[in-house]
Amino acid sequence: MERLVGEIKLRDVIDLRSNAEVALEGPGPLTRVPEVGIHHLTLFAEGGRYTDVEADTGDVGNTRIEGDRVLPWQGRRENDLAEVRVLGFYYAYLRDRPDSILAALRVLAQGEGAAIVHCAAGKDRTGVVSALALSVAGVTREAIVADYVATGDRLEAILGRLRRSDTYRADMDSRPAESHMPRPEFMENFLRVLDYRHQGPLGWLGEHGWTDEDATALRSRLLD
């Protein structure tokens, strides 16, 4: 905490988890630090029960969550279709929550200190937002894909942490570790879809209200 807030000057946390994940996992210690702004920006079309594990069996508070929207990685059976599914999940974030994605990027653009972007594993939702931010900064496709794939270097530790949580354990234990790996073709094809449908990441952002001023501010922050 001292290192993050005092030394690194962390000032913003962008939390991409679903409402139910936040409710189930409880507040983290950074929520008690007045210098740090917590920005909860779910990438799921919220409507129902838990989040990544048990999405179709009840309520969390007054929130109802639809399992197939909150648990986009459930139900994977055929390994040869993994790429199609992952691409669908990633594009669904853009389709369902462009408001959250633009808000996340604007926090990064307008902040005055360091920022953390996270979801549960820091791979899928975080990977999509990070790829868009790096695209705005003019980073090469090769570097964006490499950044995404680098999450796999810590996969064992990430899965171990998630298995210690009742919220995620069942999903982690239901599939082999290899199925969680961030494969380069996932991000490559996601970006190709944006090229084909929207003239690239910047085209998609522009369609949803991202301005030249936003882009200039984010580039300045990331390249400073």
From TrEMBL:
Report any Pfam family annotated for this entry.
Y_phosphatase3
Spell out the PROSITE patterns in the cross-references. Answer: TYR_PHOSPHATASE_1, TYR_PHOSPHATASE_2
Q: Where is the Tyrosine specific protein phosphatases domain?
A: 99-134
Name assigned to this protein? Tyrosine specific protein phosphatases domain-containing protein
Organism of derivation: Sphaerisporangium flaviroseum
